[in-house]
Design a protein that fits this description.
Helix content: 25-40%
Largest sheet: 8 strands, mixed
Order of helices and strands: HHHEEEHEHEEEEEHHEEEHEEHEHEH
Low-confidence stretches: none
Strand order of the largest sheet: 1-2-4-3-5-16-6-15
Mean pLDDT: 97
Radius of gyration: 24 Å
Number of helices: 11
Number of strands: 16
């Protein structure tokens, strides 16, 4: 029996285990940076599986190792996130959230359970590969500054430094049984824009007696769109959107100020910095030119996620070998953001998608919704493929 066949058999044999772990985690979700019981459970499972747990990191995060023969030869890292979202679950399932108002609505229960059982599989075959698999269980993917950034600051990618890192994320647009890969630019950076436009309010029948911040705001919103349409390279995806505008005036009242909230997303870090300055300059110039002023705050979010163009095609090939080419799809650019991007800014990284959709069973809801769930058959691939992608690298030059 080949090593690949052993991994597939182990994934199949451990399906009930990964199912039970996922359901336990789903029923006991914890919010970002508050994953204390989750972290304790993960550590207990790792010890049960015979995995070497090094330490806690970033408070609730964990670093662990599965060491094969000659453990210093090569190091590969696998990552999972553990936090849940402040959402009231609407699913009527036996494993429904027991923590009211908190739900694993983004699949982090899947990521964590998959990596746990991947570790169990790795332990079972560790005498058949050389090198080390470094396991990162991180907190706070859903909340700034992002658990990945804290893990990195506290040394998660050091002593030893992995040659590359792999992350997996559920995708309800892809049928269960399939996975998706993309090389190069994949997910966008995400910055929050908090803007206050100040004028001088008054009676709407006498606009000449004041400085209308609503009019100033309208000019700013329209003008800022040229940041994307006329200043960014057509080769670099960029999005600028305002979704929250509050004036607090009335039909006959011009207010003193208008508050705006929006998002700016792109896939180039240099352009990202340049765009921030251009937005501030344009907004300030318009406001001052019309007699008002503006406070323009950019709250920096996650960087853009780059899938390494050398390792990604190789890993995609390993996935095709494991699942069959027909079950490995090509992904398009995705303008959402992910704090796994921090890892991709430090070392070669690859972030792929695990299909979880089942239209026949009505499992079609998107992430971050109260009805999100998965076709749990995907868990067998979730655990097995993670293990195989590490093993395949450690057994091939």
């Amino acid at each position: 029996m080949t090593l690949k066949e052993q991994v597939k058999n182990l994934a199949q044999e451990n399906f009930e285990e990964v199912l039970a772990v996922r359901r336990y985690l789903h029923a006991h979700p914890e919010l970002s940076f508050k994953e204390y019981e989750t972290s304790k459970y993960v550590k207990e499972k790792l010890i049960e599986y015979g995995v070497e747990v090094e330490k806690n990191i970033a408070d609730t995060g964990l670093i662990a190792y599965v060491k094969g023969k000659n453990p210093e030869k090569k190091v590969i890292s696998l990552r999972a996130d553990m936090d849940a979202l402040p959402i009231v679950e609407a699913n009527d399932v036996p494993y429904k959230s027991k923590n009211e108002g908190v739900m694993h609505a983004c699949g982090h229960d899947v990521h964590t359970s998959s990596l746990l059982v991947a570790a169990k599989i790795l332990v079972a075959v560790k005498d058949q590969f050389e090198g080390t698999v470094k396991l990162l269980f991180q907190p706070g993917e859903e909340l700034l500054p992002g658990g990945a950034s804290l893990m990195i600051k506290e040394g998660a990618l050091q002593n030893p430094t992995p040659e590359n890192i792999i992350g997996q994320h559920v995708m309800p647009l892809i049928p269960a049984g399939k996975v998706g890969f993309r090389s190069g630019m994949y997910m966008a950076s995400a910055d929050e824009l908090h803007v206050t436009v100040k004028g001088q309010g008054g009676h709407a029948a006498m606009p000449d007696q004041g400085i209308d911040p609503i009019l100033i705001t309208s000019h700013i919103i329209v003008a800022l769109q040229q940041i994307v349409s006329r200043n960014s390279s057509p080769k670099v995806p960029s999005v600028l959107s305002f979704g929250d505008v509050h004036a607090h005036g009335a039909t006959n009242v011009i207010p003193n100020e208008v508050k705006l909230k929006g998002t700016f997303r792109t896939m180039n870090e240099e352009w990202r910095k340049d765009a921030h300055q251009r937005m501030i300059k344009i907004a300030t110039g318009i406001a001052e030119g019309m007699g008002g002023s503006v406070d323009f705050e950019v709250r920096h979010g996650y960087p853009y996620l780059e899938n390494d163009e050398i390792i990604t095609p190789v890993l995609k090939g390993y996935a095709e070998d494991y699942l069959g080419k027909e079950n490995v799809l090509d992904l398009d650019i995705w303008m959402a953001s992910e704090d796994f991007a921090y890892y991709s800014q430090e070392i070669p990284a690859m972030f792929y998608r695990l299909g979880t959709r089942n239209e026949e069973r009505g499992i079609t809801s998107g992430v971050h919704t109260p009805t999100f769930d998965i076709d749990e058959s995907a868990l067998e691939i979730g655990a097995g493929l993670m293990a195989w992608l590490a093993i395949a690298q450690l057994t091939n030059d």
